[in-house]
Design brief:
alpha+beta; 3-stranded antiparallel beta sheet; 3 helices; elongated; Endo/exonu/phosph_ase_sf; Endonuclease-reverse transcriptase
Length: 143
């Protein structure tokens, strides 16, 4: 009986993917294109023993234009079509049973908040887009 349990536990450990690193990356992508997405996927989302959350600002996406791989999870906040050119937020990570995030509802399009579990850690990530203008309008938007 004990031997069966040891074999079962060993098999379960082998079936679970483990990661050596967890990193959260922040990139101002200045307009996400299919080419830039392919580079991001290769650099951050394909490494076998690493888990990366890739946080993108200024995606400039106002509608779905980018084909995200089916094994990559995408969570985003897009500006309305009448907004300024920049903006748009996105968080990407590779699919894995040890990761479960949900988008926290928010009426503000300049804030993307997710919460959930990642490798048995409870995590909340808040990605904010700030207006870089020093004009009164830029300051007002940031408030």
């Amino acid at each position: 009986e004990d031997e069966k349990n040891k074999v079962k536990k060993t098999k379960e450990r082998k079936d679970k993917k483990t990661f050596e690193n967890l990193s959260i990356n922040l990139i101002n992508i200045n307009g996400l294109t299919q080419t830039k997405y392919a580079e991001l996927e290769e650099m951050f989302l394909r490494k076998e023993k690493e888990l990366n959350l890739v946080c993108l600002t200024e995606t400039h996406l106002k509608q779905d234009k980018i084909r995200i791989s089916k094994d990559i999870t995408e969570i985003n906040s897009k500006r309305d079509t009448d907004g300024r050119k920049g903006g748009g937020l996105m968080i990407l990570h590779k699919e894995n049973n040890s990761i479960k995030f949900e988008k926290v509802p928010n009426v503000e399009k300049e804030i993307l908040e997710i919460e959930g579990k990642c490798m048995d850690l409870k995590i909340r990530t808040i990605l904010v887009y700030f207006d870089a203008r020093t004009t009164p309008e830029g300051k007002r938007r940031n408030l």
